[in-house]
Amino acid sequence: MRFRYFSWLAFAIFASPVFGQAGTGESIDFSKFAETDIAIIFTTRNSDANKFVTDRIPQLVDNKLRSTSRSTINGQTTMRITPVNDPVKFLAKLTQYGRVSKIDGNRVYFAVKKLDLPKVGTDPISKLLFDLESPNGLTQRKAMEQLGKFPPVKDKTEAVSKAVTKILEESDDSTAKEGAAKLIGAWQLKEQVPLLYKLAAQDKLKYTEARRAAIETLARFPDAKSAEVIAQQLSNFFAREAASKALQTMGKVGEKSVIAMATHKDSQTRVEVCKILSIIGAAESLPVLEKLKNDRTLSVRDEAATAYQIVQVRAKN
C-alpha cells in the first residue's frame, strides 16, 4: 500500500509545470529546456486534434513570435515557432493539451490527449461553427468562407451571428474580420450590420482588406446609414475604389451622401463624386455638378462637365 501511495504521489509531482502532463507513458522533465527556436513534432496521427492544438500554440507564448510554420509529411505534423523567450513556461502551458514524450535538442515530441472534437458524421455547418471558435484567424476565415457557400439555416443563424459578433468585436486579426464581414452579407445578418460601420471606418493599414469587405457587404444592405458610412470612405485612398463601386451598386439611396462629399478638400474625392453621380445622380445632383464645373482643379471640372450632361439627360427622362 505504501509503494502504491508513493507511486501515486510521484505521478502527481511529475505532472507539475516542469514535467510532461500526466497521462500514459513516461513524463519528461523540461525544467532546463532553454531552446528559443522550437520544433514541436506531433506523435499523434490525428489531423483534427493536431490542428486544434497548433491553432492555439501561438497564444501559449507570452512574447511576440517572429515566425510560425506548420507542415504535415506522411501524416506527421510539425510546427516551428520562434522566438520563445520562456520555453519552460511555454511547455508547461502546452501540456494542457497532452504530454511531452521526448525532447531532442530543440525538437519537442508531443502526444495530444483525447479532446472534445466534432465526431465523424457531424453535420458540416456544426463542424464549421466549431472551427469559428479557433483563435487562428486563417482557420476562422476558411470556416466562414465555407459557411458562406451554404444557404442560411434557421436553427444555425443565432450561432453564426454570435460567432461573427465576437470576431468583429474582439479579434485583432484582419483575416478573420474580413471573413466575418463577408459572412454577414452571405447569411443576411441584418442585426450585425452596425458592426460593419466601425470596420468600414477603420484607418489602420492592416485592415485594408477587411475594410473593403465591410464596404462591399454594406452595399447589400442599401439604406441611408450604410450609404453615409461608405461615402465617407471616398476620401480614403485605400478604400475609394471599393466605396465608389458600392455606392454605384446602391443607386439612388446613396445620392445624398455622395453629394455631401462634393466639397471635400481632396480633389480626387471630388472627381470620384462626379463619377458616381454620373451613374446614380438625378435632378438633385445638378446644382452640385454645376458648381463643380467651376472647381479650381481641372480634372474635377472635366468630370463635373461630363457628369452634368449625363444627369441632365436622365433628369429630363
Please give a structural write-up:
The chain folds into three domains: 2-111, no CATH class; 118-206, Leucine-rich Repeat Variant (Alpha Horseshoe), CATH 1.25.10; 222-317, Leucine-rich Repeat Variant, CATH 1.25.10. The chain contains 15 helices and five strands. Strand 4 (98-104) and strand 5 (107-112) form a beta hairpin. It is of the alpha+beta class and 317 residues long. It is elongated and about 85 Å long.
Helical run tally? 15
Structural class of the secondary elements?
alpha+beta
List the strand order in the largest sheet: 2-3-1-5-4
Distance between the termini: 99 Å
Largest sheet: 5 strands, mixed
Strand % is 5-15%
Domain unit count? 3
Mean pLDDT: 90
Unreliable runs = 1-17
Query: Share of helix among residues?
Result: 40-55%
Count of individual beta strands: 5
SSE series: HEHEEHEEHHHHHHHHHHHH
Q: What is the approximate shape?
A: elongated
Task: Give me a quick take on this structure.
This protein has 15 helices and 5 strands.
SSE topology:
Blueprint: H1 2-14, E1 38-42, H2 47-56, E2 67-73, E3 76-82, H3 87-94, E4 98-104, E5 107-112, H4 124-131, H5 137-147, H6 154-170, H7 174-186, H8 193-200, H9 208-218, H10 224-231, H11 240-250, H12 255-259, H13 267-280, H14 286-292, H15 298-316
Parallel strand pairs: 1-5
Antiparallel strand pairs: 1-3, 2-3, 4-5
Give me some keywords for this one.
15 helices; 5 strands; alpha+beta; Leucine-rich Repeat Variant; disordered N terminus; 5-stranded mixed sheet
